[in-house]
Design a protein that fits this description.
352 residues; alpha/beta; Quinone Oxidoreductase, Chain A, domain 1; Rossmann fold; 8-stranded mixed sheet; 6-stranded parallel sheet; 12 helices; 16 strands
Length: 352
Amino acid sequence: MRAAYYETNGAAREVLRVGEVETPQPGRGEVRVRLAVSGVNPSDVKSRAGLTRKIAFPRVIPHSDGAGEIEQVGEGVSPSRVGERVWVWNGQWRRPFGTAAASIVLPSEQAVPLPAHIGMETGACLGIPAYTACQAVLLTGIADGSTVLIAAGAGAVGHYAIQFAKKRKATVITTVSAPAKAEIARQAGADHVIDYKREDVGERVMAVTGKRGVDAVIEVDLAANARLLPDVLAPNGVVAIYGSGAPAASIPFQFLLQNSITMKFLFVYLMPPEQRARATAEITRMLEGGELVHNVAQSFELGDIVAAHEAVPVTKPSQIRSRSRAKMALRTRPQWGRFRGLFSPPPSLEIS
């Protein structure tokens, strides 16, 4: 089968290759998915570059997210799943073979049914951002009457987090860096949008909340934004953190202690099974009901995977900021023609 791969860490154009590799066969409890689109996340790009972890296998086919159709099942999986449209998650987590290929084999539960009216490109860009957003909202415990501040509301995770928070009837405040991104956040349902480059975030939050502060914060860059927490959080508030622009962060300890603030960190790859099941059910219900607005950015063919990776502006961890990016997708089959990714929104890859 055709696949993109790398055998050492490094710059995209130096290490990424596209060629023929052996087609995998499903084992017990597994399915083989004929992929149509592969989603590209910042974590995929950082892993390839060796910024967050070094290559652990002789060859790696990148990307954790994707969408396609089940073409073969292993022992113990119902044959009725053959032909099912699905989106997949954790494709390359602790495994050498991800979704930047014609097919992928993975446990049956990691292939989630995709409603007929949802496109493959959208399905390929659900995994990491939608699960992260849903888990973050779950961890904050927000509900009807709560107010939440979501960083980077036009980004892949923030965009979904707005929608999951509104589903719980919370009041949503979000930050963006440009007027065009403000419109994206409003389309997702944000009640109040703050352009942090032109406005004082703390002042706006206090004006919106009557000087009370928010009940929760969903944060993409703790290192950059921890200093803002005293300006926006109410006592007994919760901070759900899924990212940081630097490996170490300074926090306002005295404020956090004296206001009984709870800080919760989440790493979507290790999402507890009960939270994963709950999130999967919620995402599926909202997809079926047409309640989710999606934000897929660019689209590339599999042969253009270098361009797709370079479209996700990640260099060193210390240089990553809370810039909102949508997801990208990579088309894995020629008749589809492209690849999409996930950072501002991210791109996607079309597999051929």
